[in-house]
Amino acid sequence: MSTKVDPNLMKELEAFGLKNANKCFHCGNCTAVCPLSTPENPFPRKLVKYAQMGMKDKLMQSPEPWLCYYCGDCSDRCPRGADPGETMMVMRRWLTSKYDWTGFARKFYTSETFEIVAIAIVGILVGLAMLIFRAGNPNMEHAHLNSVWPAPAIEIADLIMAAVLTFLLLSNTWRCVKFTMGDLLKKVPLEIYIKQAKDLIIHFITQKQFGKCTDRTQWIVHLLIMTGYTTVFMLVVIFLAGGIHVVGLSWDKIAFQRDIIYPFFHPVRLLGYYATFAILYGTTYAMIGRLKKSKAPYENSHATDWMFLILLQLTTLTGIFIHFTRLLDWPMTTYVLYVVHLMVAVPMLVLEVPFAKWAHLAYRPVVLFLTNVKAAYQDQQKASE
Q1: CATH number assigned to the domain covering 9-99
Q2: Cα dist. 66→55, 193, 285, 360 in Å?
Q3: How many Cβ atoms sit within 10 Å of the Cβ of residue 47?
């Protein structure tokens, strides 16, 4: 079977941040030192070879970029300075753009100007909408958000936004599944998918593969950011939909809006405080590391890396400020901060979740799951021979 070669593949990858892959002369050090590389799924060297040889189709079907967590060992040990860890990161950006059928992901990753302008436009539109559709007689004696923006209207807008985001993310994830599985997608029996489904949940919640890397600090930071954001999502979408309302937390403003404040030790409020701590600690650690270029994963910072961290931290900080102004019962300050908070949070959700860095939280566990599905299917085939 012939393999198509795209001579422009390296140039295309350069638009996503590729710099040093041509320095690689395939000594194999990177694959040898990687604790996650296996004989069945060797990386990063194999992926670098695909890029150098223009094997675009092979690269699009490869799960290995998602099996890498970028601990940086491979880049530290590379004798040529080819930075294979960053090459794997570039491939994840490129693959994200291929999964996205709208084309927005590609624009986000290849144009810093587009990303900034898109976020600014969405933020301004949100601010204008909040000003235009506010209630006529806001409560100026007490901080009462429902007197300015009635909760039913906010909840309807939230549900519409959630539906759109879910559709975009799931449709892109489905393309990820089709690219990764190829012809095996329909050949694998349903029971194998079901048996391996637990791995999808485990890898998403624990990121346990990352724990096998030598730099466990990176795993902890990654886990804090992921669990912090996931906790917020669960509180806002699932618990609230079931009738538990998050109150007194920064994050209730992202979706369902309430004006009751729970006691300090209420479990939902404590979960909100954990999410706030986890996100602030994780993002601050990553931002300081990128400023100091303290280790391989922070040596090269793409614009989307910074935007991801900045939007997440600003959303958290503005939420904290709202929390305190509500406790202090400062109405006007609370209302203004609420608008600013949504002007940051909504662009992060609308643009970052389906098209950029947040999408990796979906693709990585899905690909890990599919890799196990393939292995189980191959074992079944060998056993039947």
Answers
A1: 1.10.1060.10
A2: 18, 19, 23, 8
A3: 25
Cα atoms found within 13 Å of the Cα of residue 364, Cβ hemisphere only: 27
Give me the phi and psi of 374, to 5 degrees please: -60, -45
Q: State the DSSP code for 104.
A: H
Tokens of 294: 């303290």
Contact 45, 24 (CB under 8 A): yes
- Which pLDDT belongs to residue 202? 87
The answer on pLDDT for 254 being more than 50 is no
The pLDDT value recorded for residue 244 is 35
Determine if the peptide bond prior to 267 is cis (ω within 30°).
no
Specify the pLDDT at position 248.
38
Q: For residue 246, is pLDDT > 80?
A: no
Q: Are 222 and 207 in contact (CB under 8 A)?
A: yes
Burial class (CB in 10 A: 0-12, 13-18, 19+), 301: middle
CA-based nearest residue to 362, from 164, 231, 174, 159: 174
- Would you say the pTM of this structure is higher than 0.85? yes
Question: Lowest mean pLDDT: which of 182-196, 220-234, 246-260?
Answer: 246-260
Domain boundaries, the chain: 9-99, 110-382
Contact 216, 201 (CB under 8 A): no
Cα–Cα distance between 63 and 361 in angstroms, integer?
15
